């Protein structure tokens, strides 16, 4: 889904915001939650996180191995596999983060949610 400024959206699931503290230090008196179905307008889209140099290099080397690995001398293929293995942790971390696009949404009730992942929103 591509979100853009000015687009109307709906919250797809209940979203717990945090605890309210009053009185004695640390005394929790409530919990704020936005219910699924609340509607609002996207005020800002904070784009995808850029890929690191290591992630781009992993993708390049992996494609090279997949496309031409069967034609490489064994020593070259082994060295390439070693380089790919060294970049694997960075690639795994990137995949775990995903293509995270965050948005700022002003809900119709006046609340503003900033830094929200686009996957919790559905366009109207």
Characterize the structure shown.
With 124 residues, the protein is an alpha+beta fold. The chain contains two helices and seven strands. A five-stranded antiparallel β-sheet has the order 6-5-4-1-7, with no helix packed on it. Helix 1 crosses helix 2. It starts with 7 loop residues before the first strand and ends with a strand. The model has no long low-confidence stretch (mean pLDDT 86).
Helix and strand topology:
Blueprint: E1 8-11, E2 15-21, E3 28-34, E4 39-48, H1 53-68, H2 74-97, E5 101-107, E6 112-117, E7 121-123
Brief digest:
With 124 residues, the protein is of the alpha+beta class.
Low-confidence stretches: none
Q: With helices defined by DSSP (H or I, 4 residues minimum), what is the helix count?
A: 2
Main sheet: which strands, in order across? 6-5-4-1-7
Structural shape: elongated
Largest sheet: 5 strands, antiparallel
Order of helices and strands: EEEEHHEEE
Average pLDDT across residues? Answer: 86
Instruction: Please give the alpha-carbon distance between the first and last residues.
Output: 12 Å
The share of residues in extended strands comes to 35-45%
Helical fraction: 25-40%
Using only C-alpha atoms, the radius of gyration works out to 22 Å
Determine the structural class based on helices, strands and strand pairing.
Answer: alpha+beta
Number of strands: 7
């Amino acid at each position: 889904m591509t979100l853009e400024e000015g687009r109307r959206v709906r919250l797809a699931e209940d979203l717990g915001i945090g605890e309210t503290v009053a009185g004695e230090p640390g005394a929790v008196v409530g919990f704020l939650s936005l219910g699924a179905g609340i509607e609002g307008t996207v005020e800002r889209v904070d784009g995808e996180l850029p890929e690191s140099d290591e992630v781009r290099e992993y993708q390049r080397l992996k494609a090279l191995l997949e496309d031409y690995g069967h034609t490489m001398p064994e020593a070259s293929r082994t060295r390439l596999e070693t380089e790919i293995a060294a970049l694997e942790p960075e690639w795994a971390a990137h995949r775990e983060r995903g293509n995270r696009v965050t948005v700022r949404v002003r809900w119709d009730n006046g609340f503003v949610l900033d830094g929200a992942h686009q996957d919790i929103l559905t366009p109207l």
